[in-house]
Amino acid sequence: MDQPSRLAGTVRPGGRTARVRAAVLEATQDELVEHGFHGLTMDQVAARAGVGKTTVYRRWGTKAGLVADLMNELANQSSAHADTGGIEADLYANALAVVEAISDRRLGVTFQAVIAAATSDDQAAQALRGFFQRRIEEWANVVDLAVERGELPKGTDGAEVIRAISAPLYYRLVVTREPVTEEVAEWSVARTLAAARAGTFAVKARRAMGVREAVESRG
After folding, report:
1. Contact criterion met (CB below 8 Å) for 168 and 181
2. 62 and 89 share a domain?
3. Low pLDDT (below 50) residues in the chain
4. Ramachandran sector of residue 160 (left: φ over 0; alpha: ψ -120 to 50; beta: rest)
5. Alpha carbons 59 and 127: distance in angstroms, whole number
6. How far apart are the first and last CA of the chain?
7. Residue 119 burial (CB < 10 Å; 0-12/13-18/19+)?
8. Are residues 61 and 85 in the same domain?
9. H helices within 119-199, ranges in order?
10. pLDDT for the residue numbered 218
11. Is there a smaller number of Cβ atoms within 10 Å at the N or the C end of the chain?
12. Do residues 47 and 90 share a domain?
């Protein structure tokens, strides 16, 4: 998910609206890092950004609206997927990008704050889901390229492969609170790639149907 830890590039020269948005989103991220989602306030964001409270309330409405726009901007600034010419290196690049993002002092804390908010706020959950959906769709392309090169079975679900790469990393980040290292990333890639080469991600729909039919037959 390789994106900068600090927002950049949101300001168009001479564009006051863009400058205001950049300042507000920067302040939103600062407040999330320092106080978390529940400590985030519209008034404090406005003061930190140096803009009027009325402007912030009118444009973003709620603190969840601020977070949604922040996540959208982070997604916009994320880099494109890797294209090394080999699926193992591409998937490792994805896993390493996740490790670097969630290990970053600023960006990692931002993600944890939004993940925590998503458990109790629908708009924050939608913002988080939108961010990850865009990143998953971007990186799923490396799986499609691998299928075209004959490295993976036809019908392999690229999105599910990318989810399988990231899942153990985020589990350590938010559930067990264990270190998320490059070694963990390597393990995740190795396991996921072995499963993908074995056709696990290509036949999941047929297997699910088989389980369902077995259950129905018992009924």
Report:
1. no
2. no
3. 1, 3, 8-14, 205
4. alpha
5. 16
6. 45
7. exposed
8. no
9. 122-149, 158-171, 182-197
10. 59
11. C
12. no
- Torsion of Cα atoms, 92 then 125 then 209 then 195, to 10°: 10
- 25 & 48 share domain: yes
Residue 75 backbone zone (phi > 0: left; psi -120 to 50: alpha; other: beta): alpha
pLDDT digits (tens, 9 = 90+) for 24-79: 999 999 999 999 888 999 999 999 999 999 999 999 998 989 998 998 888 887 77
pLDDT recorded at residue 184: 95
21: Cβ–Cβ under 8 A, 6 or more apart, which residues? Answer: 10, 59, 69
- Residue 143 carries which side chain, given as an amino acid letter? V
Report the amino acid identity of residue 182: E
What the block records as the tokens of 109 is 């804390």
pLDDT at res. 20: 93
Half-sphere exposure of 133 (CA within 13 A, CB side): 7
As a whole number of angstroms, the longest Cα–Cα distance in the chain is: 69
